Amino acid sequence: MPAPAQRRIIFQHIDEPGYTNDLACYRKHGGYEVMKRAFARPPAELVDEVKKSGLRGRGGAGFPCGVKWTLLDKKSGKPVYLVVNADESEPGTFKDRYIMHQDPHQLIEGSMITCFANNVKQAYIYIRGEFPHGARILEKAIAEARAANLVGPNILGTNYSCEMYVHRGAGAYICGEETGLIESLEGKRPYPRIKPPYFPAVLGLYQCPTIVNNVETLCHVKHIADIGGEAFAKIGTPNNTGTRILCVSGHVQRPGYYEFEVGKITLGQLLNEVCGGPLPGRTFKAVIPGGSSAKVLKFGERFKGKRKVGAELVDYDWGVEDVPMDFDCLGMIGTMGGSGGVIVMDDSVSMVEALANINAFYAHESCGQCTPCREGSLWMKKISSRMVHGAARPEDGALLKSVADQIAGRTICAFGEACAWPTQSYVTKFGEEFSAYAATKSAAKPAGATELV
Amino acid sequence: MIAPAKPELVTVNIDGREVAVPKGTNVIEAARQAGVDVPHFCYHSKLSVVGNCRMCLVEMGLPTVDPATKAPVMDPATGKQKINWIPRPQIGCATNATPGLHIRTQTPQVKDCREGVMEFLLINHPLDCPICDQAGECKLQEQSTGYGRGYSRFIEQKNVKPKRTLLGPRVMLDDERCILCSRCIRFSNEIAKDDVLGFIDRGSYSTLACYPGKKLENNYSLNTVDICPVGALTSTDFRFKMRVWFLKQTNSLDTESSVGANTVVWSREGAIYRITPRQNDGVNDTWMADSGRELYKQVAAADRLAAAKVSGADSTLDAAITAAGDLFKSSAGAVAVVGSGRSSVEEQFLTRKLATVLQAPVSLVSRVGKGDGILVSADRNPNVRGALVTGLINALPAPKLTDLAVAIDAGKVRTVVAVGEDLAAAGLTAAQLAKIAIVYLGTHANTTSAAARIVLPSLTVFEKNGTLVNQQFRLQKFQQAVPAAIGTTDDLVILSRLVAAAGGPTLPVDLTALWKVLAAEVSALGPMSFASLPETGLLLDATPWAALPFIEGESLHYQPSSAKATEGRPA
């Protein structure tokens, strides 16, 4: 089956020759018209549209956006905040940066519609510290929008006022966790909060109800306001609506950004047809479908079970190539759609070394608040880097897995899973590589294998 | 006596047993009430909950109800309502008891969680228990014995962190032992209101440190040592002095102010090594001031009075009492008594008896400092209210003995019995001291003891038993921690013998018998006895003294009634 064509909603104009990131160009392409129309509608109607659209968060967890909005504690009388999560830090994910660099006004428009729908008077864009250029672009775009009366007091002559600020992070992965992000925005160490009781929808920024949404999600809100929730829900597959930007990196011929309807393309179509397949003379070995914290998939493994299609249960028997790229199918086979960062590894990669790299990242980024993740992530790093740079023992794989098992599900935030899942899946699926690693190291490396740093 | 309010109860099920606990109780406390230990490190009942140690992970579930009908779903196997167990373990500290909440603390999953957390906490811990001051009272030691695996799988290099950081004058930090529970940070922030501690760096390299340019030097810094579950924070005063398991614990009170913080005195072979707070939720929670912890040093101070004296020469107690009796006779009608707000209730009662027999006027000396709003109040006498309750005085004391000075100048007073008070410090001049004969009963040398005709060395609070009435009118007891110093005599014995020497009745000196007299003669103490007084004290009815302008401001668990507060404070 040939791969379907890309459907570019968010990337509609991005990469078009002559398309720039300033306000004039955005308006020339119909920018802020949707917002103008949206502001004429009752806010509750917009929330309903988003609920009907079935839009799921694009940050990683895939939580339904409309539900998130309805959980807001509006009875408290406290101000509601919108925080745009632009702390895109998951290795393998680079979509939000591209949106902000190429089309910042799309994000601003989507955010302002979200603010209007939820009666938000103050919005913050929390952008990671490593994106100085993106922050400058956003600052400039907000200034342009403010000058054009699209942000700020009495927007477009209505009674509605909403301010928007850019806040730069200081360089920590954990700031992408919504409660850690809120703490950081308040000026503290980004220690994620315990839930309950600190759900952002109730006790978020400054203990007020807060919406935290990903950049891509908010851009989708603009299109939902444009075409309506029901029309949006027809894009993609049921329960996995709209389009998704997939960021493919690693050992394929054409890595890059691709926007597809969710669930309409399989992993095999994406890698083999869209991305041009493996590099010459190589074969695919493993792929991480949703950012480095997602569980790895091994080419050659098969997934069997029953799944719901419409109302009935249907048997499925998939290889890795057959898995549709949507939240539910990837969840069903034990990994996740995550942030859409597809990392491809071919037969030149040693899984032990790949894991050592990932473990080093998570040990460096663990915030240190709760015990299992703080101690476990560094322990796993120490084991895997000893395997790579020192003496590897045959039992190290089992030890790594056991350490990871002591982390997942026992931490304050989802970082516990993020750092445990790679280890768990690598050791489970490539166990023989771990037990044989001492011998592998002494043998000659395959030609073209990347040098360890 | 005032009865406490009854809380609203909810029933939870812990390991199959139903327990009724007050609403708002968290799972750790609820389990504690059911006699089940839920191990924890970061949770402290008097601090905010952070849930970072993950040691208190337990299984929780709620009774299942049919979502449509709201009817309970029954389990046919047990005949009871089916429990919907949450698949992931939950922390007990951050979960409050809700009606019907089921908790399992003994399942394989919970055991595995605890073993995992223990292993993680120990991999970078130096395991230097043999040279660690915390050994014997270390939560990490105890819980690793109780809930750990007992062996290590860690073969990598441990993290290296600073070993001897002086956080402040009294607190030493060993960062390698720190398990990053953040109790000290929360204490400084929430209780001491002195935000000086924080973590730097991240992940496993996180390190406790003072903010740049700041020190942990507030008067509550040693509480961080108390609540540190491991040997990371140690007291510079106590460090390396004694193994805690050799020490005897005696319940006592902090006598530095009218707050009356409950304490434990740790001693061995007649020497006191440290004082720590004792939990009393009505008075000091689990805290006390650093200043109160140093009071034990007065026991073995160099200026301690160690022999009775008559006219400057060492004497036996008998001879000194006889000499005092002679003095009372020769100056009959011209004797004055200076009592003390630092004496115990029992001593104040006997002081009153002595004054009655001698027909002597009684004065007390007030001591006023700055209240810190936490656990040191403005009234630095621990027992002024005891003097009111026992009828020793009827009005609040003044800082200076002005009336007594006038009476001495007028020749109306020729003999003064001073119970533990330095008359010179209370405003009498050297000339005035020279005009009178002084019977001084006290613990340490001062101007008055030097000028006294008769000196009767008595005991510090650590060497005797008794009761004090704090600012809340809470009657609390302290107990003898160490034997009396050589040459000293119990204040009660001295006072009772002085009463007899003055021609009064023979009064009992042991507390059981004395309390019978007290209970009979002092209406506020009517139904009580020393033996039956709970360790956390009893609130007395304060209404007879409600109109007095007490000087204390607001502090932990104490709110001066607004009328009293505004009247009582100097403008």
Can I get a quick summary?
The complex is a heterodimer of chains A (453) and B (571). By secondary structure, chain A is of the alpha/beta class.
Question: Care to describe what's here?
Answer:
The complex is a heterodimer of chains A (453) and B (571). Chain A has three domains: 212 residues, NADH-ubiquinone oxidoreductase 51kDa subunit (Rossmann fold, 3-Layer(aba) Sandwich); 110 residues, Ubiquitin-like (UB roll); 92 residues, NADH-ubiquinone oxidoreductase 51kDa subunit, iron-sulphur binding domain (de novo design (two linked rop proteins)). In chain A, 40% of the residues lie in helices and 16% in strands. Chain A contains 19 helices and 13 strands. In chain A, the strands form four sheets. Chain A has a five-stranded mixed β-sheet, with no helix packed on it. In chain A, strands 3-2-1-4 form a four-stranded parallel β-sheet, with helices on both faces. In chain A, a hairpin with a 2-residue loop joins strand 5 and strand 6. The longest helix of chain A has 19 residues. The model of chain A has no long low-confidence stretch (mean pLDDT 94). The C terminus of chain B is likely disordered. Chain B has a seven-stranded mixed β-sheet with strand order 16-15-21-20-19-17-18. Chain B is α+β, with helices and mostly antiparallel strands and 571 residues long. Chain B contains 15 helices and 24 strands. The longest helix of chain B is centred in the first third of the chain and has 16 residues. Helices cover 23% and strands 17% of the residues of chain B. The interface between A and B is medium-sized, with 33 and 37 residues.
Write the layout of secondary structure elements.
The complex is a heterodimer of chains A (453) and B (571).
Chain A (H helix, E strand, L loop, with lengths): L22 H6 L4 H6 L4 H11 L11 H6 L9 E7 L8 H8 L1 H15 L1 E8 L4 H16 L15 E6 L9 H8 L14 H4 L6 E5 H13 L1 H5 L2 E2 L2 E2 L1 E8 L5 E6 L5 H8 L9 E5 L8 E2 L3 E8 L2 E8 L7 H6 L8 E6 L4 H15 L5 H19 L6 H10 L9 H15 L1 H5 L1 H6 L11
Parallel strand pairs in A: 1-2, 1-4, 2-3, 7-13
Antiparallel strand pairs in A: 5-6, 7-8, 9-10, 9-13, 11-12
Chain B lengths: L8 E6 L2 E6 L4 H7 L23 E7 L19 E3 L4 E2 L10 E3 L3 H16 L15 H9 L17 E2 L4 E3 L9 H8 L6 E4 L6 E4 L11 H6 L5 E3 L12 E6 L8 E7 L2 E7 L12 H4 L15 E2 L2 E2 L2 H14 L4 E4 L6 H14 L3 E2 L20 H6 L12 H8 L5 E5 L10 H6 L1 E6 L4 H5 L2 E4 L8 E4 L4 E5 L12 H11 L9 H11 L16 E2 L22 H7 L3
Parallel strand pairs in B: 1-6, 17-18, 17-19, 19-20, 20-21
Antiparallel strand pairs in B: 1-2, 3-4, 3-5, 3-6, 7-8, 8-11, 9-10, 12-13, 13-14, 15-16, 15-21, 22-23, 23-24
Helix pairs in contact in B: 2-3, 7-13, 8-13
